[in-house]
From TrEMBL:
UniProtKB keywords: Membrane, Transmembrane, Transmembrane helix
Protein source organism: Nonomuraea solani
Name of the protein this chain belongs to: Ca2+:H+ antiporter
GO function term, MF aspect, one: sodium:proton antiporter activity
Topology in the lipid bilayer: Multi-pass membrane protein
Location (main, coarse): membrane
Stretches that traverse the bilayer: 31-50, 62-86, 98-119, 131-151, 163-181, 215-233, 253-271, 283-307, 313-335, 342-360
Length: 362
């Protein structure tokens, strides 16, 4: 049974990558669209498997960092490529995608992870010191990159001037790098799972540590799976755009759907960690993904803006700023005690549902 599972996680990413290469840039019939959707789902599950193998080998918080950075780097490449190929009408794509990533991670992933733990154990325990530092960094990056452009006056519209964009790119990358140093070197213990008294050891904890060869193979397959996930999301995007347009929904919904697809591996990995009572790993994944999404996307589009046509609109509207502010207030109140209950999970999930509803009905 284990051998079959391993073979499945090896074969599916390869098949997904082959299908991506064969269908890239082509119009697809409905049957092929359905097949690609199945391969996309399989690639997501394979990515989660290989990420967990790597995490088991390198330990925390490096394991969470590997998945968050890998997904984000490929997501950034997708955003830039879509902006280059889409022309001026994609001026809000980076903003919509990054904002969606922040709301999905800080409310969706956090909410589902806390719900999983609190339904099982009543209380979700985590390290408030490390999680608080991560939340503060996400809040700072979000405000500098998504809120300030609405109020600056050097450029017309909710946009940065070239100098302001360059400054935002430098500080975003610097803050992200400083956090990674804090998380992995100087204060690594702040981001390790909290031991829960009376919790039995799980199969994952009893399992032998994977060899270096196995971990390297999983790293390669993880990258293949993630490239396939993001690439197939782009291939499926015309179908999504057509469905959104025919339903009369706002164009921003496309970015939300693509963000949901791209963040599926992290969501599944976070919930599975929560089922093992390792909610700190879930929070590392959620906040680390939000931070990497901003810290890597803003510098990338700052460089790409040199040859991009049309304006680059980063500033959020009033409705989204209210949701963002409420998210950080609620997240702070969740993080400070270092313990969360079913109530906190419900509040985060309501905020996530509100984001999705307002994306459909602004």
């Amino acid at each position: 049974m284990i051998r079959n599972a391993v073979k499945w996680t090896v074969v599916v990413p390869g098949l997904a990558l082959i299908a991506l290469a064969a269908t890239w840039g082509r119009e697809l019939p409905p049957v092929l669209v359905a097949v690609l959707a199945l391969l996309l789902a399989g690639a997501v599950l394979a990515a989660v498997h290989h990420a967990e193998v790597i995490a088991h080998r390198v330990g925390e918080p490096f394991g969470s960092l590997v998945l968050a950075v890998a997904v984000t780097v490929i997501e950034v490449a997708l955003i830039v490529s879509l902006m280059i190929s889409g022309g001026p009408q994609t001026g809000t794509l980076a903003r919509d995608t990054v904002f969606a990533a922040v709301m999905i991670t800080c409310n969706g992933i956090v909410g589902f992870s806390l719900l999983t733990v609190t339904l099982k154990r009543r209380i979700a325990a985590f390290n408030a010191e490390g999680t608080g530092k991560a939340l503060a960094t996400v809040a700072t990056l979000s405000t500098l990159s998504l809120v300030l452009p609405t109020f600056t006056t050097s450029a017309q519209g909710p946009a940065f001037s070239p100098g302001q964009l360059a400054f935002a790119a430098v500080v975003s990358l610097a803050l992200w790098g400083l956090f990674v140093l804090t998380q992995t070197v100087r204060h690594r213990d702040y981001f390790l799972p909290v031991e829960v008294e009376g919790r039995p050891m799980t199969e994952e904890e009893h399992a032998p540590r994977p060899s270096a060869r196995t971990a390297l193979a999983s790293l390669g397959l993880l990258l293949v799976a993630l490239v396939s996930v993001v690439g197939l999301a782009k291939v499926e995007s015309p179908v999504i755009e057509a469905a959104v347009s025919s339903a009369g929904l706002p164009q921003a919904v496309v970015g939300v759907v693509i963000a949901l697809l791209v963040l599926l591996p992290e969501t599944i990995a976070a919930v599975r960690a929560a089922r093992r009572d390792q909610v700190q790993i879930s929070l590392n994944l959620a906040l680390g993904s939000a931070m990497a999404s901003i810290g890597l996307t803003i510098p990338a589009i700052a460089v790409a803006s040199i040859w991009l046509e049309g304006p680059l609109l980063l500033g959020l509207g009033a409705t989204h700023m209210v949701l963002l502010a409420l998210t950080f207030v609620v997240s702070t109140l969740t993080v400070v005690p270092g313990r969360a209950t079913l109530l906190q999970s419900g509040v985060h999930l309501v905020l996530f549902a509100s984001f999705l509803f307002l994306a459909i009905s602004p």
